[in-house]
């Protein structure tokens, strides 16, 4: 046997003995801190079987916490700085995300109007938090002037309108492109669903899609919506409003015996007209493109709109049937 072969054999034996010795020491050390490792890995393994993101983040945070304990308390070893720093960062990140998730689950505070709208129109479709998120993407407007315009035939179609509330003595009137009366809408109605559906259909055509996105074409309203005072109010109703405004001003300034009405030309009571929310197409698309709420909002809104359109068509058919019945009865009586 050559000297080189003997040297190689001796070196191999020395390495093997050293490895076995180190492995034995490793087993002695692990007996002292296996509990922390097992707890950490158990949390990670359990998290793989869960679908709830809140529980997953909580288990990851606990697992990282047990690794931090191991970094401090492992016997026979110094503090593991790298393990400590990385797992502290994991704990902080996951706790922050858990707080965000819990905030989303907390019931939001609704105003009286918002609560009424939710109970009447949205309870079966959205959770309170989803409804609040939808409202935050809309723009609230008070329209109190007679003949106030909500939308007009020929204008650019950029938003969908939700009629949240209509005060007594007022109505929202729809007219077609020929200015013919279509119908009065009630609180809880949507205006612009047909235009939005047509827009979605147009965008499926690659040529139209490109032309619309490049600004060569735009979708327009094919219906007009205005606020109308009921005829029974007429000029008397307006006079009563002015008298009521005068009374309110006397209450605000009881020390004044004579009040100049022109002092308050920039004020109008919010007990008139209607309250609407306007949802721009841009904001709705942002909701649709949010990975966390894509299916919730798109499917929820489409379900809501389909239900509204169905009920609207049924009511219109009933009104038409009643009209034809009245005409027939009148002709029969002649």
Search tags:
334 residues, alpha+beta, Jelly Rolls, 2 domains, four-stranded antiparallel beta sheet, 59% helix
The CATH C-level name of the largest domain is Mainly Beta
Query: Into which percentage range does the β-strand content fall?
Result: 5-15%
Major sheet? 4 strands, antiparallel
| Assembly state | single chain
Number of domains: 2
**CATH architecture group name of the largest domain:** Sandwich
Which structural class is indicated by helix and strand composition? Answer: alpha+beta
Which parts are unreliable, with pLDDT below 50 for 5 consecutive residues or more? 4-17, 19-30, 232-259
Count every helix, treating DSSP H or I runs of 4 or more residues as helices: 10
CATH superfamily of the largest domain: Jelly Rolls
CATH topology of the largest domain: Jelly Rolls
Shape: elongated
End-to-end Cα distance: 133 Å
Helix content: 55-70%
Tell me how many strands there are.
8
Describe this structure in words.
By secondary structure, the protein is an alpha+beta fold. It has 2 domains: 13-103, no CATH class; 112-323, Jelly Rolls (Sandwich), CATH 2.60.120. The chain has 10 helices and 8 strands. The chain has helices at residues 3-47, 53-73, 81-105, 112-122, 128-136, 193-203, 206-213, 234-252, 281-289, 294-333; strands spanning 139-143, 149-151, 159-166, 170-175, 181-185, 190-191, 224-229, 274-280. The strands form 2 sheets. A 4-stranded antiparallel sheet has the order 1-8-3-6. Strands 2-7-4-5 form a 4-stranded antiparallel sheet, with no helix packed on it. Strand 4 (170-175) and strand 5 (181-185) form a beta hairpin. It is elongated and about 100 Å long. The N and C termini lie far apart (133 Å). Residues 4-17, 19-30 and 232-259 have low confidence and may be disordered.
């Amino acid at each position: 046997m050559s000297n080189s072969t003997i040297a190689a054999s001796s070196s191999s034996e020395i390495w093997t003995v050293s490895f076995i010795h180190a492995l034995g020491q490793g087993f002695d050390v692990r007996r002292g801190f296996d509990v922390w490792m097992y707890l950490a890995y158990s949390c990670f393994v359990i998290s793989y079987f869960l679908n709830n993101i809140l529980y997953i983040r909580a288990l990851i945070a606990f697992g990282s916490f047990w690794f931090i304990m191991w970094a401090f308390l492992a016997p026979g070893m110094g503090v593991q700085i790298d393990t400590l720093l990385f797992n502290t960062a994991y704990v902080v990140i996951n706790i922050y995300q858990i707080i965000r998730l819990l905030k989303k689950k907390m019931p939001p505070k609704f105003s009286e109007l918002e609560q009424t709208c939710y109970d009447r129109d949205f309870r079966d479709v959205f959770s309170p938090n989803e409804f609040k998120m939808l409202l935050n993407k809309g723009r609230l407007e008070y329209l109190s002037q007679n003949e106030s315009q909500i939308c007009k035939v020929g204008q650019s179609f950029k938003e969908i309108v939700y009629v949240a509330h209509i005060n007594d003595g007022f109505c929202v009137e729809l007219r077609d492109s020929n200015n013919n009366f279509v119908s009065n809408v009630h609180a809880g109605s949507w205006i612009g669903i047909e235009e939005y559906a047509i827009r979605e259909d147009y965008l499926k055509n690659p040529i139209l899609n490109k032309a619309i996105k490049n600004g060569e074409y735009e979708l327009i309203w094919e219906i007009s919506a205005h606020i109308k005072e009921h005829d029974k109010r007429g000029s008397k109703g307006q006079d009563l409003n002015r008298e009521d405004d005068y009374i309110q001003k006397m209450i605000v300034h009881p020390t004044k015996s004579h009040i100049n009405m022109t002092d308050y030309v920039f004020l109008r009571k919010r007990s008139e007209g209607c309250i609407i929310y306007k949802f721009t197409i841009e904001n709705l698309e942002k909701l649709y493109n949010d990975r966390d709420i894509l299916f919730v909002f798109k499917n929820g809104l489409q379900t809501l709109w389909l239900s509204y359109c169905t009920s609207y068509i049924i009511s219109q058919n009933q009104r038409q049937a009643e009209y034809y019945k009245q005409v027939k009865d009148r002709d029969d009586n002649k």
